[in-house]
Amino acid sequence: MKNRKAHMTAVGRIELADCPMPAAGADEVVVRMEYCGICGSDAHFYKEGRIGKKVAPLPFILGHEVSGYVTECGADVTALQPGDRVALEPGVPCGKCELCLTGKYNLCPDVHFLAAPPYDGALRKFMAFPAKMCFKLPDDMTMQEGAMLEPLAVGMHAARRGGVGLGKSVCILGSGTIGIMTLLACKAMGATEIIVSDLVGHRLESAKRLGATVTANPKEVDVTEAVLQATGGKGCDVVFETAGSPVTMSQTGRYVKSGGVIVVVGNIAQDVSYNFLEISRKEVEIRTVFRYRNIYPLAIEAVEKGYIDLKAIEPKEFPFEQADEAFQYTITHAQEVIKTLIKVSD
C-alpha cells in the first residue's frame, strides 16, 4: 500500500505528494481515510495562510472532519478492530490537566488538534490516531455522515451551552455550515420556534428546508420586528451568533428575551461595539463556545435514530486528486455550499 497526502505548499495551492505509511502505536489505530470535509478554518488557512496569530507552516496538511476504516490496531487497543468504520474526533487532549480531569477537555491547553498549527491535518490516505478518539459508526450510517459529525458536534455543543430544550425559541444569526448544524441540533433538542437570519437568500432557503420556522434577510425585513412577531413580543430564549461578525454580535441583545441566553459560536476576531446596558437590564447571560466536548456518541446516536438528518445537507463532493479544486470551489461558492467533502479513497 502507498500513502499519499494533499498538502498546502503555498497560500492558495494544494499539491499531492507521497508520504510514509504510518504504524499504529500501542494505543493507536491506523485509519484509511474515506471522506474529509472542508471546514471554514481550512478554507481560511488555504486562502490567507493564517488565522489570527496562527500561521500555517508550509507545507501543511489541512482537514479535520474525517471518517475512515480501521486497517491496523495497536497492541493495547481492544474496542476496535480492522474493518471498523470510524469517525475521528480531531482534538487529542493531554488527559492529565485540571480541565481534562473535570471533563472540559476541549479547553485543554495542550490539546493536539488536527490542522491547527503546528499539527498537520488528516487530508491523506492513511493516518495513525489514538483509538480513544475514534468512534465506531453504526452500519446504517454513511461515511459522508461520519465526516459531517465534527461540525454537527459544534452545533450540538452550542445548543447544549444555550440550554435549548422542548418549547424553547431560538434565533440563529448566520446560516453557513455551523449555523445550519446549530439549527439541526436545536430542532432535535425540541426548539419549537427557530428563527434564522442571513444576508444570503440561498442560505435562507436551505435553512427553511432544514427546519427553520422563520427566515429573515436584514436587507429585506427588520429582524427585530420579525423576532418579536414570532415570539409574541418577548424575544427569543436563546440567540446564537454563528456568523463570526462583529455586526451581528452587536445586535444579539435586540433579539434575546429577558432572562435569556446569548451563545457566541462564531469566531469574531475584531473588536465589537456592544450595548451592555441593553442586556444588563434583561439579566441576559452571554456564553461562549470552543469546539465541543463529550458530544460524538450523542451525535452518532442522534443521526442513527433519525433525529438529525445529515443527508439533507447534500454536500458537494470532489475526488482526492482534485483537492485543490475542492478548496477553490468552496471559497468561490461560499454562499451556495453548505459543506464540501473530499473523497479520499480511490
From TrEMBL:
It holds the Pfam family ADH_N. One of its GO terms (molecular function) is oxidoreductase activity, acting on the CH-OH group of donors, NAD or NADP as acceptor. Its cofactor is Zn(2+). InterPro entries: ADH-like_C, ADH-like_N, ADH_Zn_CS, ER, GroES-like_sf, NAD(P)-bd_dom_sf, SDH-like. It comes from the Bacteria. The keyword Metal-binding applies. Keywords: Metal-binding, Oxidoreductase, Zinc. Residues 9-342 form the Enoyl reductase (ER) domain. Belongs to the zinc-containing alcohol dehydrogenase family. PANTHER family: SORBITOL DEHYDROGENASE. This is NAD(P)-dependent alcohol dehydrogenase.
